[in-house]
Design goal:
single chain, alpha/beta, Rossmann fold, phosphatase activity, HAD-SF_hydro_IIA
């Protein structure tokens, strides 16, 4: 089946007139986890001046308030965007309310895998922290305990968890990310391995439809709004947008820059991008080298 055609653009200003609002990814598009990319703040300012509302949708495994605070620390003003939805916020509400049957079966004792910065997931939650897997009812994985851990570091833990039939909540489906120029694993890599072994994993975030539903409810743009997604991951941003029927500007200089042989700010050879899209079965509306105006 032939891939739908797409347009290569140098900036959002070339096509933004076709849209009423933008849903913006963060990591790999706006910032690298430490600092904003050179063009991102200017692009957000230009969107604001053009009267285009912006919502953020990120696979960050923490409360949205923490994401907003981190953005402000980076110099990204709160006035530049509207709703900010983190996958951790979606999981937080599910875990707190426990209306969903999967969440309703979870006990109180949770074994945590991930850094301290993700502990906002437990604010006002009725949980108890288990020090060992044998004492736990379930597992929350928000990432590696240390950024430099490989997935193999958790192999023994995952086999033990499987033998105990522990369910796992993963509020970040991303498998890897580039942080400060260094490629590191994310929670999705650990949870994906557990699922491969036969473990019970509940995912929250992109590309799941629930993430877009949660974001759109917060955005409240109306059913006829023309929305453009900006993202850099084929497996989350593009896959989710395809499933939701939304147009997407694919930032080729993000997580896929190396395999496309096109550094941030440059467009790849069309043949390379065509091949990657064909192999992954994804389709994009626009290809853009960087999130820029």
């Amino acid at each position: 089946m032939p891939q739908p055609s797409y347009q290569m653009i140098n900036g959002l200003s070339e096509v933004i007139g076709n849209y009423d609002a933008v849903i913006l990814d963060l990591w790999g598009v706006v910032h690298d986890g430490i600092t904003p990319y050179p063009s991102s703040i200017a692009a957000m300012q230009a969107l604001k001046e053009a009267g285009i509302p912006v919502a953020l949708l990120s696979n960050a495994p923490r409360r949205s308030s923490v994401v907003i605070a981190r953005m402000e620390d980076m110099g990204i003003e709160r006035s530049l965007y509207g709703p900010a939805v983190a996958s951790g916020e979606i999981a937080y509400h599910q875990l707190r309310d426990r209306h969903d049957a999967w969440y309703g079966k979870l006990g109180r004792k949770v074994f945590r895998v991930g850094p301290v910065r993700d502990h906002s997931m437990f604010e006002e939650q009725d949980v108890e922290f288990a020090e060992t897997l044998e004492d736990a009812d379930w597992i929350l994985v928000t990432g590696p305990d240390d950024d430099h851990d490989p997935v193999t570091h958790y192999e023994d833990m995952l086999h033990l968890a499987l033998s105990l039939s522990l369910p796992m909540l993963c509020p970040n489906p991303d498998r890897e990310v580039i942080r400060g120029g260094e490629r590191i694993i994310c929670a999705g890599a650990i949870a994906g391995r557990y699922e491969e072994l036969g473990g019970d994993v509940r995912w929250e975030g992109k590309p799941l439809a629930s993430a877009y539903d949660f974001c759109l409810q917060a955005f409240d743009m109306g059913p006829d709004a023309r929305l453009l997604v900006v993202g850099d991951s084929l497996s989350t941003d593009v896959a989710g947008s395809n499933a939701a029927g939304l147009d997407i500007a694919f930032v080729t200089g993000g997580i896929h820059a190396e395999e496309l042989n096109a550094p941030r700010g440059t467009l790849p050879e069309k043949a390379k991008l065509d091949q990657l899209l064909q192999v992954t079965g994804r389709y994009v509306t626009y290809a853009i080298g960087d999130f820029c105006w």
